[in-house]
């Protein structure tokens, strides 16, 4: 097996949202919002939703950090290009949604495609109440 490194390190984008900053009241509601965003995008396709919290909780060696109440991944793919077969290792994409004691944390890994990053940033920003942003 050959190991290679990509030309870039992919930083993680994360957004913490207080309960008073959004009208969404649960991880399921936020995942539904992201699914609608993905399905409305011309080149994105929804794949599945993975309940990371439930999976980890049922494992004998599973550990969930303090204050995490729920955690799911919305799995999807933009599918805009596939220039090399090795890039399948970086796909599909995932947006993580966690509920914590203080609110929600949304996170995703940066892509090498600015169009995809812009879409995911816009989707995440859409979770905030407009009234909160204006204040």
Question: What key phrases describe this protein's structure?
Answer:
alpha+beta; single chain; 4 helices; 135 residues
Q: Explain this structure to me?
A:
The protein has helices spanning 27-40, 52-58, 114-125, 130-134; strands at residues 12-18, 45-51, 68-77, 93-100, 103-109. With 135 residues, it is of the alpha+beta class. It has a single domain, classed as TATA-Binding Protein (2-Layer Sandwich), CATH 3.30.310. It has a 5-stranded antiparallel beta sheet with strand order 1-5-4-3-2. A hairpin with a 2-residue loop joins strand 4 and strand 5 (103-109). The longest helix has 14 residues, at 27-40. Mean pLDDT is 90; it is low at 131-135.
Q: Strand percentage, roughly?
A: 25-35%
CATH class descriptor: Alpha Beta
CATH architecture descriptor: 2-Layer Sandwich
Q: What is the CA–CA distance across the termini?
A: 54 Å
The number of helical segments is 4
Q: Per CATH, what is the topology?
A: TATA-Binding Protein
Order of helices and strands: EHEHEEEHH
Share of residues in helices: 25-40%
Strands side by side in the biggest sheet: 1-5-4-3-2
């Amino acid at each position: 097996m050959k190991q290679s490194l990509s030309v870039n390190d992919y930083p993680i984008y994360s957004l913490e949202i207080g309960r008073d900053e959004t009208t969404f009241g649960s991880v399921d509601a936020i995942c539904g919002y992201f699914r609608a965003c993905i399905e409305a995008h011309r080149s994105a396709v929804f794949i599945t939703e993975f309940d990371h919290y439930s999976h980890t909780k049922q494992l004998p060696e599973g550990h969930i950090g303090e204050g995490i109440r729920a955690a799911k991944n919305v799995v999807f793919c933009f599918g805009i290009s596939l220039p090399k077969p090795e890039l399948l290792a970086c796909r599909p994409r995932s947006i993580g949604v966690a509920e914590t004691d203080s609110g929600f944390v949304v996170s995703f890994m940066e892509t090498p495609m600015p169009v995809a990053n812009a879409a995911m940033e816009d989707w995440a920003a859409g979770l905030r109440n407009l009234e909160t942003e204006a204040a």
